[in-house]
Each structure stands twice: as structure tokens, then as C-alpha cells.
Amino acid sequence: MTVTVRAAVLTQSATPLVIQDVVLPDPGPGQVRVRLAAAGVCHSDLSLANGTLRQPVPAVLGHEGSGTVDAVGPGVDSVRPGDRVLLNWAPACRSCWFCQHGEPHLCEHAADGGAAPYAELADGTPAYPGLGTATFAEQTVVPANAIIPLPADIGLHQAAVLGCAVLTGVGAVLNSARVGAGESVCVIGLGGVGLSVVQGARLAGADPIIAVDVSADKETLARALGATDFLVSTPELARDVRALTGGRGVDHAFEVVGRASTIRQAWGLTRRGGRTTVVGVGGRDDQASFSALELFYFARTLTGCVFGSCDPASDVPRLLEHVRAGELDLAGLVTDEIDLADVPTAFERMLAGRGGRSLIRFDSDSDSHS
Ligand code: PAD
Ligand code: ZN
Fold it and tell me: What is the largest CA-CA distance in the chain?
């Protein structure tokens, strides 16, 4: 039996999402249908919607979500209806070269789920799942390897932000850059992902943790989540960062905006021999260039970062230990609880540099403070 659910649908690139019904099939072999409790709005959704990143249409966007299993298809024994779960937008196949070599975040098949339709619009048009998970809908259907079980003691709604912002941001610090205690960190861009980088730096024992944004609005949030210093990005940024780091620049700079200009800026804030980690995802035409001389002279490492180099199967349980210990704040990342219809407003807030994560709540009457 199919189910009809409310969803936010991208019908054409660079047009507003439209709330409409989507018809989901029963989960097929190896698939699971999940009833969403909450879904976070990530800048990658905005980039998929506005054409910065490619997205076949029509599509149900959204790739950060938590919920309960509604039904399982034949052959699924890892979860049962009623189980509390987190969705994983980069599920690893466990058999390709990357998976076999300890890099499941680079799995060759991680994006397969988003490449084929998973549901239909009310008129029968096939619809694609954004990043394979399609969490901007009351329910979704995903492969069983895109499901991470959640323990009973973790609030189901707040857990949603683990699915992208926290795994990516904290993972960027602990797994990708491997920041050490006492090392200096600068984070450029303080949305849900950048604020998670700040929290990751706090977990690593970094000092100082310099948070940078174009929006002065972000200071309170950044300091609450671990920043020791906050700077509004101005042409004097490099001078201000050097003043806080013995004139050298930081050991680790994180770019969490997704632009060539901020990548260059993060590079310029990094000390000689330090590491610049690019977490932001930008467009293919936005070129950053580096002179042959400076690559030699500064001896820095510039590296991309996919999904915080995470394996959610092992990283989620580890992050939940930090949540239990009060060292990682999931609820603190969420500044706006919204309805599905308010995703366009959440996109506007992002562009204006306001707030942290916006979280869609699908069942606002139950489990209310979790
Ligand atoms: P967001 O829009 O919530 O936050 C971006 C922040 O950057 C905002 O606070 C802006 O004010 C700020 N900003 C904008 N321009 C500048 C500037 N020139 N200098 C300083 N700050 C600026 O986004 P988000 O936190 O959801 O996502 C951030 C990026 O991370 C985005 O590019 C997204 O696509 C990417 C991402 N990467 C991965 C990955 O696997 N690498 C995963 C998830 C998201
Ligand atoms: Zn994301």
C-alpha cells in the first residue's frame, strides 16, 4: 500500500519550494519507511534549490532528519517499526575501494540514492529524493544502510541535527583535521555546520577558538557553543587573527561558507605549516587560485572535507557520549523551530546571516522539549 504525505518539493531549479502531496511506495527489498519527527535545514539544501549544486527535479529536498521506523521491506532485519532512527545522507556500501580502505565517507555509492526517483507527485510524475533522504516530508523511504539507530535516552527531535551539521562540523575537527588540545582554531561561517565546528574545537580542547562571520548576530551563539573570541569579518581580519595567535596565524582554519573568497581568507589566516580545512561546498565555477610561490613558502596543507570524514555507524554513538556528558549541545544549535511550509523563510534567514539551525518539527504536540 502506498502512503500520501505532505512534502516541500523543488519543482524547478531556482524557484521556491512548493508544499504538495507526494505518494510513497511501500518499502521494497532492503528499504525502510521512516516517519520524520524533525528535519534540519542545511545550506546544502539551499544550494541544491538555487542551482549552485545540481539537483534533478522534481525533488523532495532535506537530508538531515530523525524519526521512527514506519515499515520495513523484505530482508530488513536491522530495524523494526517503532524504532527511533537518524537518517544518513551518505550511506556507505561497505564494499567499494574507499569503504574497504577506511574511508566510507568517500563511498563510491554514497550518492546513488539521490540519482533515481523514489516516489511520485500526486499526478504520477516521478520525484527524486534530495541527497537520497528527502527529509522535507512527513515520511520518507530510504535504503536500510541510510538508517542509524538512536538510543531511547536521546531526544528524538534534537537528534536530527546530528545527521548533517554535527557529524560534518565536529567530524571536520576530530576526524579530518585532527585538531589537538591547545592548538589554535579559526572558523569562518557560523551556520549550523560552522557552529558545530566550534563545538568540535571545544571538544578537542583547542585554544583559542576564534569564530568569524559577516553577521555580528552570531556572536552570542558562537560564544555559547565554545568560541573564545568572535570577530566580524572585515578587511582587517587577518591582522586581528594574528594579534590573537602570537603574530603567526592559527594552527587550523576552517572554511564553512562555501566560497572561493572565504577559502582564500581561511588560507591566509593559517600559520605557516598549518592546516586549512574546507568544509563549505561551493559552485563549480567559483575558482580559488594559489601562486606557485606561496604554496612553497607557507607550507600549509589545504584539504577538502566530505561529511566530516565520518562513519556515522561509529561516530554517532561516540558523539552521543559527548551529548550525555554535557559536552556537545544539540538543542543549542537550533534557534528556530518551524513548519514544513517555512523552509523558504529558513533559507532567507541563512542568506541574511541570522540564527543557527532551523528545525522543522513534524509532530509538535509530542516529545515537545526533546
Ligand atoms: P549557513 O547558511 O547556515 O551558514 C553560513 C554562515 O556563513 C552564515 O552564518 C553566514 O552569515 C556566514 N557567511 C556568509 N558569507 C560569509 C563571509 N564572506 N565571511 C564569513 N561568514 C560568512 O550554512 P550551513 O552552516 O548550513 O552550511 C555551511 C556550508 O557547509 C555550506 O557551504 C554547506 O553546503 C556546507 C556543508 N558541507 C558539508 C560537507 O560534507 N563538507 C556538509 C554539510 C554542509
Ligand atoms: Zn547538510
Answer: 65
